[in-house]
Amino acid sequence: MAKNLVIVESPSKATTIKKFLGSSYEVVASNGHVRDLPKSQLGIDVDNDFEPKYITIRGKGELLAKLRKEVKKADKIYLATDPDREGEAISWHLMTALKLENKNTSRITFNEITKNAVKQAIKQARPIDTNLVDAQQARRVLDRLVGYKISPVLWAKVKRGLSAGRVQSVALRIISDRDAEINAFISKEYWTLNADFIWMARRSRSMRSFTEHIPRK
User: Fold this and answer.
1) CA-based angle 150:49:53, to the nearest 5?
2) Segments of the chain scoring below 70 in pLDDT
3) Comparing C-alpha atoms, which of 33, 215, 21 is closest to residue 137?
4) What are the residues facing 28 on neighbouring strands?
5) What pTM, to 2 d.p., does this model score?
6) Are 47 and 26 within 8 A, CB to CB?
7) What distance in Å separates the CA atoms of residue 114 and residue 5, rounded to the nearest whole number?
């Protein structure tokens, strides 16, 4: 029986990594996220520090049940989801969904699927980076808040089925404001005067002499 369990995102990665690690390791896949905000409601408690309300993604219940069985067999669990904030959040969700808080669990990351990279990652196992998890959650919450608040306005004013996001909505506002500035601009004639003050200082005496002989009206 394998004493070590490695959870990755992709089934194809699981197959390859299993070959690298041998019989003492079992490698399984989460197939991406296992929990997310509900689609039928906002899913964020705006009155309680914007606390997100996560649920198991539809269709992932059976997968989580299989993962729980593998967890029970393992002495050590490695969460090897992708090496970015999204992957860090998936590991954090797996930690919660599989109740790994009291299990011997570590986070590992690697940027290439090679034997050396995977084994080196295991040697450098670490806790979950909560800063990356918080960054992903902030992005997800903002997407939801902006999307669920602005998209209905687009449906009513522009076209049904359009969606808004935290990035494109702000970018569109910047473009709109700039377009308004351009339309409000009134062209005026102006002149730019340049003066060489060093030359003027050297020529000041002759200039005064010259100006004294200019006929005055």
Assistant:
1) 70
2) 1-2, 197-217
3) 33
4) 7
5) 0.76
6) no
7) 18
